[in-house]
Amino acid sequence: MRNTLLDFITFLLEKVILFGRSRQGTKKEETNTGANYYDVSCFKRGDLLEVSRTLFVHFGIYLGDNRVAHLMPDILPAISRDKSRIQTVVTNKRLIMGVLAKVASIRVDTVENFAYGASIVINHMDRKFTVKPLSNEEVATRAEKLVGSIAYSLLWNNCEHFVTYCRYDKLVSFQTDKVNSEKYLIYK
């Protein structure tokens, strides 16, 4: 028997992501001036990178040489050992199924694949923390050591938790904290 609620949620998420990609696609076409249209010369190894998505902000750690480590929900590593297929850009269906199955991986992608057509903000989170970031080399080394499969939780272990641990030695997600605090405001 098929789970119609799960099918409905997957359908809605696909439509929201498709709508967001169509908006981002215009921006990508306007700014794409070649195969490598992101100026990575302004990035330093260990920088925390942010890109806007349809409903949230996605985070990664710049490793140098046009590479970014980031935590992505992805079902494919749980069902396949084919490294070439797994390393391809994560599709929306793979991402949604990864969220639902609570499986992810910390992976390394190019800056272009990480940004997915969005503008990149560098180290914006430094203003939100009272602690100083770790050295850029330590940040990048932590990220590299964590590459591989990992359990996923939208609220407790997402891409923001990954980068805040790497850069500030704290597991924090301001996005999920905001959602949780807004939920509690309803009862006050």
From TrEMBL:
A single cellular component GO annotation: rough endoplasmic reticulum
GO molecular function: phosphatidylcholine-retinol O-acyltransferase activity
InterPro entries noted in UniProt: LRAT (IPR042288), LRAT_dom (IPR007053)
PROSITE patterns listed in its UniProt record: LRAT
Active site, UniProt feature: 159
GO biological process: retinol metabolic process; vitamin A metabolic process
LRAT domain span: 48-175
Domain of life from the UniProt record: Eukaryota
Name of the molecule in the record: LRAT domain-containing protein
Pfam families reported for this sequence: LRAT (PF04970)
